[in-house]
Design goal:
The protein contains 5 helices and 2 strands; from the N terminus they run αααααββ. Strand 1 and strand 2 form a beta hairpin. By secondary structure, it is mainly α. The protein folds into 3 domains: about 15-65; about 70-95; about 110-145, no CATH class. About 60% of the residues lie in helices and about 5% in strands. Keywords: Membrane, Transmembrane, Transmembrane helix. Pfam families: PgaD (PF13994). InterPro entries: PGA_PgaD. It comes from Luteimonas salinilitoris.
Length: about 150
């Protein structure tokens, strides 16, 4: 298969403003797509009687249940407070302590064995910042092109 740059997307190469704008455009079209499904979903829920259950449980006689109005926001607030408290506790506990250890370098011979290539190919991969790895029909490397 021939290399085709259109198949590879690099969103990090775009400017953040452009990437964010296209994210909003994508979200708007997904919302519109979901809106198009609303009549079918409403019909299925009506057939299953979900609309009746909603009215009986939550909207009886067009009144909002006081439990939903007062308790659920309190539960959400309590969850937010607990999450922030836990994050602050961990920040206080682990501040200034770097517990991560450096990883040992993998030997070139082990990389070559994992790739199914020779040591020269593995070494060239380690030296190059941007490389093109040429593979044969059995997905084994047989050459490197440095960019």
């Amino acid at each position: 298969m021939k290399y085709d740059s259109r198949l590879i997307r690099r969103p990090n190469a775009q400017r953040p403003l452009r990437r964010t704008a296209w994210g909003f455009v994508t979200a708007a079209f997904w919302l519109f797509y979901l809106y198009l499904w609303a009549p079918l979903v409403t019909f299925v829920l009506w057939v299953l009687g979900i609309n009746t259950a909603l009215h009986e449980l939550y909207l009886r006689e067009s009144h909002i249940e006081p439990f939903l109005l007062f308790v659920l926001p309190l539960v959400a607030l309590a969850c937010a407070v607990l999450l922030i408290a836990w994050a602050e506790y961990n920040r206080f506990r682990f501040r200034g302590k770097d517990r991560r250890r450096a990883q040992a370098d993998v030997p070139l011979a082990e990389i070559a064995v994992a790739l199914g290539a020779d040591a020269a190919t593995a070494s060239a991969l380690g030296r190059g910042k941007v490389t093109t790895l040429h593979m044969d029909e059995h997905a084994r490397p047989h050459g490197i092109g440095l960019a």
